[in-house]
Structure formats: structure tokens, C-alpha cells
Give the backbone structure.
Amino acid sequence: MTEQVSGQVAAVVILAAGAGTRMRSTRSKLLHAVAGQSLLSHAVDAADALAPQRLVVVVGHEREQVAAHLAEIAPHALTAVQEQQRGTGDAVRCGLAALEASEGEVVVTMGDVPLLTGETLAELVSQHRATGDAVTILSSELDDPTGYGRIVRDDDGDQVAAIVEQRDCTPEQATIREINAGIYVFDGPVLRDGLASLTADNDQGELYLTDVVRFARSAGRGVHSHVLEDRWQTEGVNDRVQLAALNREYNRRIVEEWQRAGVTVVDPATTWIHASVDLGTDVTLLPGTSLEGATTIAAGATIGPDTTLTDVEVGEGATVIRTHGSLAVIGDGATVGPYSFLRPGTQLGVRGKIGAFVETKNAVIGDGAKVPHLTYCGDAEVGEGANIGAGTIFANYDGVSKSTTVIGRHSFVGSNSVLVAPVTVADGSYVAAGSALTDDVDPGQLAIARARQRNIPGWVETRRGDTRTWQAAREAINNEGA
Ligand code: UD1
Ligand code: CA
């Protein structure tokens, strides 16, 4: 989808040293998630779409957390430490110091704008190349530009003369609605020389990256802005209200893409789909469905309502109702739920069934096998076509270690049985209801592992002689006699 930029840019510098105070969090702002992915990893994805020669992330506040996270999600990225937050110009200086050379194009972006796409960065680079400018600025027009740096143009309205921060604006400049998104492409040498020339001669006493624009113009070089219609892409996260708003918008975009690709989403407002999820044609998602991680849903399957699946593979035409699942595989045409809990290692075969109030873990359940009601099925192999009665418990844990239960093909476990692992019920055998099974069962056998029933005649008369129960018994006995 990303527009291809021919020829690599020399570097992308992601600014991520800020404090993020308004999140009021013990975690770095950049580790908070949109669509299950940290803000920083969204920034890295957009940068990686350009395939830059170098990717540098400038860290400062909570830098141990940020650097550790970065090592996990983007081991190819370099980190540069900005000890003191002396402004965006200082931050980029720190970033450039981590690079050997400053030739070529340098893209500067921010760690906290999760909706920015690689496509937009590629457009910015394309324009930069087409004009031969020294600086290309991503901008957008806002009804309320309060707080942003304003794009001040030349008298003829073509080139950008300067970027002026809100607090440094004249009343007239403050009325400008075109704002600086804080995302740029620079000619490397101009950036290096411009940064060297910065002074903290402004209201905040900081080194402003934006002053490189004036530097480039006075050196006789060109500067244009690239106005982006889609303002969401330039919106940053400063607090948790914005985090939720951007998360919702990001999700709305993913949901809409899937709808256009042939997925029925009954209620987009309560359906959440991570970017990493894959859906087939004619999948139906009912309200309250959340699909996360590496989840894949094959054609014609119906998921929901109120279902969360993380790293789950669902087969064609399967139905998953009111279920919580992770790291599980559900076969073609299988049915799951309502109220099922599928834990890691669950594999349900073709047209198999996991029913109401069933918890499974590390359980391979064969094609056409059924675990329909009220069961704990852990550390199990259930053969093809087997039927597990209501209320069966696979007792897999003896307090020290876990053991496996094997149920053979087309075998039948009666209701309310306890299968004390390790135990094997062979192919084609039965376990009587209410059994507490401790020994293996051979093919063709019926195992009965419970006390035989004993009826004591006259017990109600002798022990409960004065009760309505005895009255009822007497009437029944007399009627029988009549
Ligand atoms: C900056 C721009 C402004 C633009 C706005 C867009 C400057 C001087 N102003 O303002 O024109 O409209 O972004 O959001 O650049 N950072 C560091 N180290 C620092 C300072 C900042 O890494 O010393 C990082 C922050 O973590 C953040 C980004 O740079 O990711 C922007 O910093 P911020 O302080 O939010 O800049 P603004 O004042 O909003
Ligand atoms: Ca900001």
C-alpha cells in the first residue's frame, strides 16, 4: 500500500525524549497502546516503510523503559540519549550525533503520532525530491490551531518563510490556521548547519528545530509545506483522553477497511480489530468482538457477540459465541460457546464442539469430537468423534505435576466423571456416568468407577416416620397395592 520511494533516505529520526506528564502514568507515554501496539511501534512502522539507511530514536525521559521496549520491537534502531530536554532542535542534534554522516535526506518525526502512515512519509519525501527544497514540512489546516507552531508564508503565499510557535506569534500570525505537524524532510547538510546556528532566543528559551526553516531560506534554499487533509495523522497523544480518541479512530479505519473487503461488522463501535489480524470473505463479527494479535478468521465464520480472541486461528464457517480465547486453533465448521474459555494449546478439529461453560487448555480435540457442557478439559487428547459428557473434569494436576488424559476415537465419557490423569480411555470404549476414573480402559470396554447403588427398604418409615415424605410414600405404596 505504501507508495514506493525510490532510493533510500539516509535517516529517520524519531523524537521521543519528552516527559509525557499529562498521561499521569508510571509507564512512558510511548509504551501506551493504540490497537494493541505501542505508540513507539506505530512510529517505527511508519519510519520503516521508508526503508531508511538508519533509524534513530531520541530518548530521554524514562529512557530505560523506552530503550528496552525498542530493543524488543525494533532491534535495528539506534538510540540516542538527550540528557536534558532543551528543545526539539537539541533533540535532533542528539539524533544526528548517533549517525556517522549527515549527507542525504533526514526525515524527522515524533514518537507519539500513532495514525501517521508510511504512505504519508513517502509522499513527503516525494515532494521534497520533486521540488529540490532544503526542507519539506508536513502541515495541516485546523479550525482551532491553538498551541501549534504556525506556518508563516512568503508574501506571495508560496514558500514557507518561518514556523512561529504560538507563544512567539504576533496577533496577526496567531490567526494563521496552517500548523506545523512537527514532521519534516531535511537536506542533511542544511539540517546540520542550521542546527549549529540555533539560539534559544524565544519565549521558552529552547533550541527550536523549526528555526532551521529561517536558516535554510536565508541560505537561499527552498522550503515548502505539504498540506495533509487527514488531520488525524498529525494528531499526537498527550493524555489518556486523546489516547482513547486516537485508538477509536484508528480502529474505525481498520473496521471500515474490512467492511470494504467483504466482512460484515454489525456494530463497528463495539468491534475492535488489531492491524495484525486477518479476516476472510463473508466473516460476520457480532457486537462486542475484539480480535487481537495474530488472530486469523477464515471465510464464512461468525464471531461474537462478546468475544475476545488473541492469537487464535478460526477455520472456515466456524461459529464462536461469547468466548474468551488465546493461542488456540478452531477447525473448519466447528462451534464454540457460549461462555467458553479457550486457553493456550487448545486445538479443536473440523466440526468439533466446545460448548457452554467449558474451559480448555493444552487440549487437542479431534474432528467431530464434542465437549458440549460444563467441563474442564486440560492436558488432553480427545479422539475424533468422541463425546465428553456434561460436567466431566479432566483432573490433570496432582498438586505437584501435570499429566495427560487420552480419550480414544468415538469413545464416550458419561456425565459428571472425573478423569484422574495420567489415564487412557482407548478407542471405542465407554466410561459410566459419575465415574472417578484412575485406571486405563481397553477398547470395547465399559468402565464403571463408582460405588454400586444400594436401596434400603423401609428407611423412610423408620427414620422419618412423622414427615410428609412418609405420608407421600404411604399413599404411593397404598395406591400400588390398590
Ligand atoms: C512542536 C513544534 C511545533 C509543532 C508541534 C507539533 C518546535 C519548536 N515546535 O511543538 O511547531 O506545531 O511540535 O506537535 O519544534 N522532544 C524531545 N526533546 C526535547 C523537546 C521535545 O525529544 O527537548 C520531543 C517530544 O518528546 C515530542 C516532540 O519532540 O515527541 C515535540 O515536542 P513538544 O514539546 O511536544 O513540541 P511542541 O511544543 O508541541
Ligand atoms: Ca506536542
Residues 236 surround calcium ion (ligand 2) (CB under 6 Å).
